[in-house]
């Protein structure tokens, strides 16, 4: 398993890195069979330390947790506890409700763009209807069942997930609605 432990504008010592690796290994060995890599980022927010952890599993799922505390070790411990709870819940859900996946999730490439927001007043017209692209990155679209897509979205803490439906081989979207429920967009060809 690969670890990437870093700090934003703070120095991460060797002792903290060793602590993070040993604690995350314990959590991951309990609930996931094949984690591929973990990304742990420490930062400061006013007087608190912030720990953000993302774990990529070979099944294609990503688990993310974030915690704040006044001490850096306490921030990590709170984050690890959240990760433990998430992985325990979703492992139980996978065992109870989903078939065993014999192969890893298939991923398809796509481009992701970040568009600049334009503060427009009602009186001014934009020069062009073309948006300004701030950044472009390469993204992966997983081939999942709808249930797996909902779990992936919840594990990652994302408000929306685009995926390729395994049953129909079409692009679908799941998203969290304002009322707390999950929405599913399933386009159909109406030829």
TrEMBL record:
GO biological process per UniProt: negative regulation of translational elongation
Subcellular location: Cytoplasm
Domain Sigma 54 modulation/S30EA ribosomal protein C-terminal: 130-183
Entry GO MF terms: ribosomal small subunit binding
Keyword Aminoacyl-tRNA synthetase assigned: no
Pfam families, per the entry: Ribosom_S30AE_C (PF16321), Ribosomal_S30AE (PF02482)
Gene3D superfamilies to which the protein is assigned, alphabetical: Ribosome hibernation promotion factor-like, Sigma 54 modulation/S30EA ribosomal protein, C-terminal domain
Claim: Nuclease is one of the keywords in the record: no
A cellular component annotation (GO) from this entry: cytosolic small ribosomal subunit
Key words of the record: Cytoplasm, Translation regulation
Cross-referenced InterPro entries: HPF/YfiA_ribosome-assoc, HPF_long/plastid, RHF-like, RHF/RaiA, Ribosom_S30AE_C, Ribosom_S30AE_C_sf
Chief place where the protein resides: cytoplasm
Subunit structure as annotated in this protein's UniProt entry: Interacts with 100S ribosomes.
Entry's family note: Belongs to the HPF/YfiA ribosome-associated protein family. Long HPF subfamily.
Record function comment: Required for dimerization of active 70S ribosomes into 100S ribosomes in stationary phase; 100S ribosomes are translationally inactive and sometimes present during exponential growth.
Name recorded for this polypeptide: Ribosome hibernation promoting factor
Species this protein is from: Pseudooceanicola lipolyticus
Source taxonomy: Bacteria, Pseudomonadati, Pseudomonadota, Alphaproteobacteria, Rhodobacterales
Gene: raiA
């Amino acid at each position: 398993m690969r670890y990437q432990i870093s700090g934003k504008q703070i120095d991460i010592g060797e002792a903290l890195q060793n602590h993070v690796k040993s604690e995350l290994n314990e959590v991951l060995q309990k609930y996931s069979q094949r984690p591929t890599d973990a990304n742990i980022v420490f930062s400061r927010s006013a007087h608190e330390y912030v720990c953000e952890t993302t774990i990529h599993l070979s099944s294609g799922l990503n688990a993310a947790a974030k915690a704040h505390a006044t001490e850096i070790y306490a921030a990590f411990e709170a984050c690890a506890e959240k990760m433990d709870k998430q992985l325990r819940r979703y492992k139980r859900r996978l065992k109870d409700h989903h078939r065993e996946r014999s192969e890893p999730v298939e991923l398809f490439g796509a481009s992701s763009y970040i568009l600049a927001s334009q503060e427009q007043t009602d009186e001014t017209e934009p020069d062009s209807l073309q948006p300004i692209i701030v950044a472009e990155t390469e993204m992966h679209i997983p081939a999942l069942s709808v249930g797996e897509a909902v779990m992936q979205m919840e594990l990652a803490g994302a408000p929306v997930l685009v995926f390729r439906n395994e049953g129909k081989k079409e692009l679908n979207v799941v998203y969290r609605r304002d009322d707390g429920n999950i929405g599913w967009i399933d386009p159909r060809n109406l030829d």
